[in-house]
Amino acid sequence: MARQSISFTKPNDEWLKSQVDNKEYSSKSELVNDLIRQARKQQVQVDWIRTKLEKAEKSGFTNDSKEAILAQSKSLLND
Fold first, then answer.
1. Angular region, 23: left φ>0, alpha ψ -120 to 50, beta rest
2. What helix, strand, coil percent values describe the chain, rounded to 5?
3. How far apart are CA 72 and CA 59, in angstroms?
4. Alpha-carbon distance values, 11 to 7, 14, 32, 37, 38 (Å)
5. Alpha-carbon distance 57 to 71, whole Å?
């Protein structure tokens, strides 16, 4: 595992220490790695949503009712 030296603001360092002191994590390194994993997962979700929104924007507008759109969406989920 790569070693890094990073600095934290006082409030962030105190928060990290409190998480370790409360036995939520065994070390600050473990906590920081967990936070990075969570951020990476969140970025994957954001990218997926962004892709879907861009595709929807490019597909244009519809005159379908909201009920028709919902029915079509549900049918796509069942495929």
1. left
2. 70, 0, 30
3. 15
4. 12, 5, 15, 22, 21
5. 20
Helix (H, G, I), strand (E, B) or coil at 5: coil
**Tokens 């969140």 correspond to what residue?**
42
Q: Which residues are within 8 A (CB) of 24 and not within 5 positions of it... i.e. 6 or more apart?
A: 31
Contacts with 44 (C-beta within 8 Å, 6 or more apart), sequence order: none
Measured distance CA(37)–CA(6) in Å, rounded = 17
* Mean per-residue pLDDT pooled into runs of 10, the chain (79 residues): 92 97 96 98 96 91 91 84
pTM over 0.85: no
